[in-house]
Design brief:
Number of helices: 23
Organism: Erpetoichthys calabaricus
Strand order of the largest sheet: 10-9-11-12-13-16-17-18
Mean pLDDT: 83
Structural class: alpha/beta
Transmembrane segments: 594-620, 632-654, 666-689, 710-730, 750-777, 789-809, 821-844
Radius of gyration: 52 Å
Signal peptide: 1-19
Keywords: Cell membrane, G-protein coupled receptor, Glycoprotein, Membrane, Receptor, Signal, Transducer, Transmembrane, Transmembrane helix
Number of domains: 4
Low-confidence stretches: 1-24, 73-86, 145-155, 435-443
Largest sheet: 8 strands, mixed
Pfam family, one: ANF_receptor
Shape: rod-shaped
Helix content: 40-55%
CATH topology of the largest domain: Rossmann fold
CATH class of the largest domain: Alpha Beta
């Protein structure tokens, strides 16, 4: 009891007892409201939307303006509101009012919560009008009169807090006013994310999650089904604008917005333009963030224009009204996905609803209006705009009715209103039991502090607590509009969103329970452009969102991940479908293939012939033909030719580090040895001619030992070049992918181009020098025409390697190596045949010419 007295003393300190009548604030007029009222020690205010339209007064400026009136009936020809039910009194909202009253009555009966204190209520109807909402708020905080009280006015607080307003834009305006006085506004339905700004709305709290979370749920659903091309339509108010702003921002992170538009109930032309855009759009998924009034107009127009094949996603203000899809409208809106606050249970609430009785009390005139709407009658004593020839008796049986009022199977917004009362009750309870010796003054502002820290569990087991922004933990049910067995349309829970779960696991959907109204009962597809097939990439269309694109094929050697083309690594190539990199087929001049066998056979044949000639010369080594012009050089030349033939075998087969180095070294040294021998033989021919001149003893300066030394010197220089080359940058196996796509040529990279050029250049220099000397000595007298044969052989050699260059460059793949082997064999055969064939012919077939007598006779001639 002492805590109760302490609370009353605290309130009296803020609102002193009434002074004389002369000290009251002056008022400019009185405003009447449809209301429900019950006095108490502490009164809680409420603002609800019982009627869905307010009629403004006539502003003729010839008489005092009348008050705004709430319309009882909605004309079917009036565009502004074409309701799905004829009377504008909303039975579901009256159920929410009763939830507030029921919660207060429960608290008053609870001896542990606010003991010895009685809560009262004053519930006002704002008729879905901002001006009426502001006036209702001012009436709540202003007491018996209708002007805003300030701290100079006297009296106890009429209400300590207000529950409502359900409309976000109304709550924004009211919160700015109430925030000046520190009076809490606890909304059960205003979900605009803008209201989370505590700097602008310090006294605003709500038991419905912020639209930030609702947007997150919608986005998670859209991502879950792979929808990347969606349209969005909203109310042109704080609720719709802020929701669409957040929604567009989140969707653009992974998809695209086909269109995003807002309108109000008074903007028919704008609404028709939006619907025209919707019809033209290829987006199959349409998200709606709009109030019931705009939704009614919008969806009715969808039906009028026969727009089907759209998957609708409705926000919490719309998803709880599956009646939009009843009867023939099911083909338009069946399967709609809705997001709404978690369904709650209120034990004993249904009995409370069925015990309501009408009242003619002016402070509770909403009871009479409810009764008239419920039973389609009129109280003759009640001043109402609902006209009916049937007279209400007050004895009608409410137990036999089945309306939105008595339906407690889907308590969502109603449950939020119920929780809002308890949040205030627990905050007041904690305030009463605050430390009496505390240095903090016990003023009404402290109620905000206790609201921020309130935490309790409802009778149905749900925890209620506010975060730093005055928002509750997001808990949503995912709804699906389906047809029940009796033909009615119901909202079926097909999933949940639990904000307390770990990131990525908040959404849980049961797709087997979901109904899809088109696409043969399968999940609809909503994309601007289908995903690119394998082997193609996205090419964004100019001036269109990134979700709208064309699919262009990837180039050869590239594969796609359906977004972009990726180049395969050097050892791989794209397959035919360009969706996988496959290993390239390796290719090299093999010993097993026909060309390799042919070249190998030819090389071995050349080597065999060289050995055979060597054997012939060895057998006939004492004959004039062999002994002429230094037989030792002839044997060395045949040995080098044998090496030339055999070195070509190093070019055949799979390249390795050893074969790559060996092929170029053997090629360079063997050919230099060969040409050096020919060059020395040419020099010997020239000097032999010079030695025949009288008094010329030149041959003693170029004897056999000098000839050997010259050959050795030329060969050592080439060996030195090869050694430096191998040390600095040796040849190595490489994989050539330039010439063929699906094949990889295994070849030997020369390593150092300079080294390779020096090797070839040195061979070329010796060959040119040898050819030049042989050409100059071609007409010199010689017993066996040695100079002419050397000239001819070097001509063949040079011709082969000159023609080799363009053939080598133009030959692709392994044929490059084949051309090189062919040049080696051709030049080797040219030297072998041109130099040794005439001698072998004389030795084998003209032995008479190989006699000393014949040689002397030829010399005499």
């Amino acid at each position: 009891m002492k805590y109760t007295l302490w609370m009353l003393i605290c309130l009296a300190l803020v609102y002193p007892v009434p002074a004389s009548k002369d000290s009251l604030c002056d008022i400019q007029g009185k405003f009447t409201f449809n209301a429900l009222y019950k006095p108490g020690d502490i009164v809680l205010g409420g603002i609800f939307i019982a009627h869905l339209r307010a009629i403004p007064p006539d502003m003729s400026f010839r008489s005092k303006p009348e008050q705004w009136k709430c319309e009882g009936n909605a004309s079917q020809n009036d565009y502004h509101i074409v309701l799905i039910f004829q009377n504008s009194f909303d039975l579901s909202v009256f159920q929410r009012m009763q939830a507030m009253i029921f919660a207060i009555e429960e608290i008053n009966k609870d001896e542990a919560l606010l003991p010895n204190l009685t809560l009262g209520y004053r519930i006002l109807d704002n008729c879905l009008n901002l001006q009426m909402s502001l006036r209702a708020a001012l009436k709540h905080i202003g007491g018996l009169e209708d002007s805003a009280s300030d701290y100079s006015c006297q009296g106890l607080p009429p209400v300590v807090a207000i529950i409502g307003d359900p409309v976000s834009s109304h709550s924004v305006a009211i919160s700015r006013v109430l925030g000046l006085f520190g009076i809490p506004l606890v909304s059960y339905s205003a979900s605009c994310s803008c209201l989370s700004n505590k700097q602008e709305y310090p006294s605003f709290f709500r038991t419905i999650p912020s639209d930030i979370f609702q947007v997150k749920v919608m986005v998670e659903i859209i991502k879950h089904f792979g929808w990347t091309w969606v349209g969005a339509v909203g109310s042109d108010d704080d609720y719709g604008r802020y929701a669409l702003l957040s929604f567009n921002e989140e969707v653009n992170k992974f998809g695209c917005i086909a269109f995003s538009r807002t309108f109000t109930a008074n903007e028919r032309e704008k609404m028709l333009q939006i619907i025209h855009t919707l019809k033209q759009s290829t987006a199959k998924v349409i998200v709606l963030f709009m109030l019931k009034s705009e939704a009614t107009l919008f969806l009715n127009e969808i039906v009028s224009q026969n727009i089907t094949g759209k998957q609708w996603i409705g926000s919490d203000s719309l998803s709880g009204f599956p009646g939009f899809a009843k009867n023939e409208n099911f083909k338009f809106f069946g399967g709609t996905i809705g997001i709404n606050a978690k369904r709650g249970l209120i034990p004993g609430f249904e009995n409370h609803l069925l015990q309501i009785q009408p009242s003619m009390d002016g402070n509770n005139n909403l009871l009479a209006q409810f009764w008239e709407t419920m039973f389609g009658c009129t109280f003759t004593e009640n001043n109402t705009t609902y006209l009916s020839s049937k007279v209400c008796t007050g004895k009608e049986d409410i137990l036999n009715t089945k309306t939105a009022y008595s339906d407690v199977s889907e308590l969502r917004t109603t449950y939020n209103a119920y929780k809002a009362v308890y949040t205030l009750a627990y905050a007041l309870h904690n305030l009463i039991f605050c430390e009496m010796n505390s240095s903090i003054l016990c003023i009404l502002q402290q109620l905000l502090h206790y609201l921020k820290t309130v935490s309790f569990v409802t009778k149905s087991g749900d925890r209620v607590a506010f975060d730093k922004n005055g928002d509750v933990l997001p808990m949503y049910d995912i709804l699906n509009w389906q047809r029940a067995d009796d033909g009615s349309v119901i909202t079926k829970v097909v999933g949940v969103f639990d904000g307390s779960s770990t990131i990525g696991n908040e959404l849980a959907l049961n797709e087997d329970m979901m109904f899809w109204n088109f696409n043969h009962g399968k999940v609809p597809e909503s994309v601007c452009s289908r995903s690119c097939p394998p082997g193609t990439r996205k090419a964004t269309r100019k001036g269109e969102p990134i979700c709208c694109f064309d699919c262009l094929p990837c180039a050869d050697g590239e594969i796609s991940n359906s977004i972009q083309c990726l180049t395969c690594s050097s050892e791989f190539w794209s397959n035919y479908g360009r969706n996988e990199c496959v290993p390239r087929e390796t290719e090299f001049l093999s010993f097993e293939e026909a060309m390799g066998i042919t070249l190998t056979t030819t090389a071995l044949l050349g080597a065999f012939i060289s050995v055979a000639v060597f054997a012939i010369f060895l057998f006939f080594r004492n004959t004039p033909v062999v002994k002429a012009n230094n037989s030792e050089l002839s044997f060395l030349l045949l040995l080098s030719l044998t090496l030339c033939f055999l070195c070509s075998l190093c070019f055949i087969g799979k390249p390795t580090d050893v074969t790559c180095m060996l092929r170029h070294v053997m090629f360079g040294i063997s050919f230099v040895l060969c040409i050096s021998c020919i060059l020395v033989k040419t020099i010997v021919v020239i000097m032999a001619f010079k030695a025949t001149l009288p008094g010329n003893n030149i041959m003693k300066w170029f004897g056999v030992s000098k000839q050997r030394s010259t050959v050795l010197l030329f060969t050592l220089l080439q060996s030195l070049i090869c050694l430096i080359w191998l040390i600095t940058a040796p040849p190595a196996p490489s994989k050539n992918t330039k010439y063929q796509n699906l094949k990889m040529i295994l070849e030997c990279d020369v390593g150092s181009v300079v080294g390779f050029a020096c090797l070839l250049g040195y061979i070329g220099f010796l060959a040119c020098l040898c050819f030049l000397l042989a050409f100059l000595a071609r007409n010199l007298p010689d017993t066996f025409n040695e100079a002419k044969f050397i000239t001819f052989s070097m001509l063949i050699f040079c011709a082969v390697w000159i023609t080799f260059i363009p053939a080598y460059i133009s030959s692709p793949g392994k044929y490059t190596v084949a051309v090189e082997v062919f040049a080696i064999l051709a030049s080797s055969f040219g030297l072998l045949v041109a130099i040794f064939a005439p001698k072998c012919y004389i030795i084998l077939f003209k032995p008479e010419k190989n006699a000393k007598k014949a040689l002397l006779g030829r010399s005499a001639k």
